[in-house]
UniProtKB/TrEMBL annotation:
SUPFAM superfamilies: Alanine racemase C-terminal domain-like, PLP-binding barrel
Any one biological process term the GO annotation gives: D-alanine biosynthetic process
Source organism per UniProt: Berryella intestinalis
Record-given protein name: Alanine racemase
Binding positions for substrate per the UniProt entry: R138, M315
Active site: K40 (proton acceptor), Y267 (proton acceptor)
Length: 382
C-alpha cells in the first residue's frame, strides 16, 4: 500500500527547484570554479540521494556531508562524485573512508598519520582537505599554525593534500568587518603554504552567503548549502539571487466539526470557540516537525485562502479554524474531510513559508526544515 494511503500527511520535494538553485549559483561564479553541493543532514531534511543526483545533474562537482554514514549512503546509491566530510571523523572510521573513497577533513596530526598509515598498508593514497580555523573557533588548525602542522605530517608518502578550507562565521552579517578578518587570515595561511612549497589543492571558503555576497572569496570552489534548498541566509542575498523553494508540506483533513461557543480545543483549552466556526483536524504534529511553539501563531492554506491554526499542536495532530459565517465580500469555504491543506508552500496567491515559522520561533530556517521528519513520506517531483 502506498504510504500516502496510510496517513494523510506528506512532504513534496521539487527537484527542478534544486536544479534551478544550483544553476543560479553557477551564474555567480567563474566557469572554472567548482561547486560543492552540501547534502549533510539528509540534505537538510530533503533527502540526500535525490538532492545530490539533482545537484550534480545541474552543475555541482563535489558533495559535502557531515558524517561517514552520510557519505556511505551516497556511495551505496552509486554516486561517484567526490565526497568531502566537512569535519574530521574518528580514527576508527578510517577503514570506511578508504573503502568508500570518502575524503575527510583533517586538523589533528595523530588522525592524519593513522589515516596515512592505513592507506599505505593497502597500497592506497590518503587524500584529505586541511581545515583551517580562521576565527570561528569550531574546528581546524589555527591559521597561523598551518605551516608547522604540514611540516609535522608532510613526511608521510600516502597523505595527499587535496584541498584547504575555512568556514566563515559572519558571511550573513550586515557588517563585513569580522568576515574580512577571517578572509585575510585564511589568505595568509594559503600564502604561507605556497611559500613553503606546498600545493594547497582546491582552496575553498565561501558558504551560501559568501558565494552570493563576496565574489573575492570564491577561490577554487564554493560550498552551496542553504541556498540550494531555496532559503536565503540573510536579507542581503534576496536581491542578488533568485531562489526557488524546494520543500512543501501537505496534509488532508481527517475530522471537521462545528464546535459550540466557549468550548475548548486541544490540550489546555488555550483556544475556545467563538461560535460559528468549524474546527478541522490534520494528521501532523510536533513529532512530524510542526513545532509546538508555533501553536496559535501560524496559518494554513485551503483552497487558496489562509486559515488560522488554533489550539496547542499535539504530537500527531493539530487543528485549524474555519469561519462559517457568510459575508458579502467573501465566499464562505466549508472544509470537508479529505480536503488538501498546505502546511508549508504556495496555493493560489497565498504562501506559508518555513522562513515565517523560523522567525516566529526566533531560529533559522535550517532548523525548521530539518525538523520535518521522515514519519511523513517524501515525494520527489520534477
Amino acid at each position: 500500500m502506498e504510504e500516502s494511503l496510510r496517513r494523510w500527511s506528506w512532504v513534496n520535494i521539487d527537484l527542478s527547484a534544486v536544479r534551478h538553485n544550483v544553476r543560479e549559483a553557477r551564474k555567480l561564479i567563474p566557469r572554472s570554479t567548482r561547486l560543492l553541493a552540501v547534502v549533510k543532514a539528509d540534505a537538510y531534511g530533503h533527502g540526500a540521494v535525490k538532492v545530490a543526483e539533482a545537484a550534480l545533474s545541474a552543475g555541482a562537482d563535489h558533495l559535502g556531508v557531515a558524517t561517514v554514514s552520510e557519505g556511505i549512503e551516497l556511495r551505496r546509491a552509486q554516486i561517484g562524485a567526490p565526497i568531502l566530510i566537512l569535519s574530521q571523523p574518528p580514527a576508527s572510521a578510517i577503514p570506511l573512508l578508504l573503502a568508500y573513497n570518502i575524503m575527510p577533513s583533517v586538523y589533528e596530526s595523530e588522525f592524519a598519520v593513522q589515516y596515512g598509515e592505513m592507506a599505505d598498508a593497502h597500497g592506497m593514497e590518503a587524500p584529505f582537505h586541511l581545515a583551517v580555523n580562521s576565527g570561528m573557533n569550531r574546528i581546524g588548525v589555527r591559521y597561523d599554525e598551518v605551516v608547522p602542522f604540514m611540516m609535522q605530517i608532510g613526511f608521510h608518502r600516502a597523505l595527499k593534500l587535496a584541498g584547504v578550507f575555512t568556514h566563515f562565521a559572519t558571511a550573513d552579517a550586515p557588517e563585513p568587518f569580522e568576515f574580512d578578518v577571517q578572509a585575510h587570515r585564511f589568505e595568509e595561511s594559503i600564502a604561507a603554504l605556497r611559500q613553503m612549497g606546498v600545493d594547497p589543492g582546491i582552496v575553498h571558503a565561501a558558504n551560501s552567503a559568501a558565494t552570493v555576497r563576496y565574489p573575492g572569496v570564491h577561490y577554487d570552489m564554493v560550498r552551496w548549502g542553504i541556498c540550494m534548498y531555496g532559503f536565503h541566509p540573510c536579507p542581503e542575498t534576496r536581491l542578488r539571487v533568485a531562489l526557488k523553494p524546494v520543500m512543501s508540506v501537505h496534509a488532508r483533513i481527517t475530522d471537521a466539526r462545528l464546535v459550540p461557543m466557549s468550548e475548548g480545543v486541544s490540550y489546555g483549552f488555550n483556544y475556545r470557540s467563538p461560535g460559528s466556526v468549524k474546527i478541522c483536524t490534520l494528521p501532523i504534529g510536533y513529532a512530524d516537525g510542526l513545532v509546538r511553539g508555533l501553536s496559535g501563531r501560524i496559518d494554513f492554506l485551503l483552497k487558496g485562502r489562509r486559515f488560522r491554526q488554533v489550539g496547542n499542536i499535539c504530537m500527531d495532530q493539530c487543528m485549524f479554524e474555519a469561519d462559517m459565517r457568510s459575508f458579502a465580500t467573501r465566499t464562505r469555504i466549508d472544509p470537508q474531510v479529505g480536503d488538501e491543506v498546505v502546511i508549508v508552500g504556495e496555493q493560489g496567491d497565498e504562501a506559508v513559508t518555513i522562513d515565517d515559522m523560523a522567525a516566529k520561533l526566533n531560529t533559522i530556517s535550517y532548523e525548521v526544515a530539518i525538523g520535518f521528519s521522515h514519519r511523513m513520506p517524501r515525494y520527489y517531483l520534477g
